[in-house]
């Protein structure tokens, strides 16, 4: 076995897996000035059709890296959605104040393409056709064993991050357990289809099924026999999905056929739905999934090895929480790992990755399991749904569910004495009147540097950043509208508020807690 055959003699960080989370981490590390190498065993982008879109705070996170604009082709900031779905129940958010739920209807393949382009622009090295096969670590670093196109080789790095999906070899090789539950009593079938125009319900855009009634679009629709979902995504081939329980549906030999899906629709709705094969260019989806896993890694870090995304947690895809969780893992870890690699922080900073992100994963496990319970068959479930639907009609409850799905209900422990209501929360997208005109916080965040925003008259908070101008971007000005009553705030690169004040002139105690927050998160002044 040779050592690294590349022109480099090693890497700061090796990322195993070039899926969305590995690629996003590569972007974050590169922005923070460290050199990642991404190992991806596939030679081309995965053909598999997974996420149809992103749901939650991640949409705002992408805006804070300029990726929302790249994916939508528009500089318009993201806006919350007026309604969504929870456990196949409609979630009306039109009357919800400060609605926290954002969505982005872009398929996973496009997200991965945009992330790969961005990572490459930022100088990350992506090695396709290179598979991690083994690893060992010592006090100085990690040695990755790799099967590459030219044969096996080794690569040294300071740290290795497993972004290698739910079956993560990194996790297994690091002796990290993956406890949880596996269920095998569900069968889900999905396919791209074409639907005759005469079946489209003009009022909703859903399906007007003869002999049954309307199946609304973009919603899991539950009957006593299973679930059906119709997704007529604009500009894309419509997707039809069914889900049945109790090992239902004499699965035919793989690959699944459209006829098998037709039979499943008939069992769920009790009538035939005359759909046809998909039109237009493929690849076309034809997927049968049996059962599912809900599992959480028992540690997110073993020494110099860390896990992100599906390698750390798997759960039902209901409500589309996967990329919201995984991409925010990477944005939480990226700047911390970079600071440790650059020698600007101790390894203790890495402990906050797990203490902050494990609760996020636990919330997703909780709400996907709750949604799975709400869609199951049975009279008791029907009764539970009725009660739940009543509760969801109350805007306060709808907001609670929306914040849970968004992941915006989390408040990180920032460790200081500062009890400002924004501290520990994801920073709102304030508009700042600075020298160059109005600018959104999301635009200031694109370089992924910590931000110290000071709207006070004497810029007392800004002065505390002296000796850290290499690390902290200081902006003084005025906050125009929607200021959340804040006069100064320190925002970490992941968008979370590490310190905030509402005082027109922060006193010495507040400035002291700002100094402590600067040191805790970004190291001592030079
Ligand atoms: C049917 C389905 C529908 C979904 N719908 C949604 C949705 O609507 N919204 C949403 O947000 N999420 C959704 N998800 C979840 C989302 O797809 C995952 O959370 C996401 O793909 C996880 O990304 P990842 O980068 O962690 O892992 P993966 O996407 O699994 O990527 C891991 C990568 O690592 C590579 N790899 C593995 N082992 C090695 C190795 N040893 N060496 C090198 N490379 C390796 C793999 O080839 C792969 O490219 C869905 C998932 C499924 C299955």
From TrEMBL:
MF-aspect GO terms: FAD binding; oxidoreductase activity, acting on paired donors, with incorporation or reduction of molecular oxygen, NAD(P)H as one donor, and incorporation of one atom of oxygen
Pfam families registered for this protein in UniProt: FAD_binding_3 (PF01494), Rng_hyd_C (PF21274)
Cofactor requirement: FAD
First and last residue of the signal peptide: none
Keywords: FAD, Flavoprotein, Monooxygenase, Oxidoreductase
SUPFAM superfamilies tied to this protein: FAD/NAD(P)-binding domain
Gene3D superfamilies: 3.30.70.2450, 3.40.30.120, FAD/NAD(P)-binding domain (3.50.50.60)
Domain FAD-binding, residue spans: 11-367
Protein name (database record): FAD-dependent monooxygenase
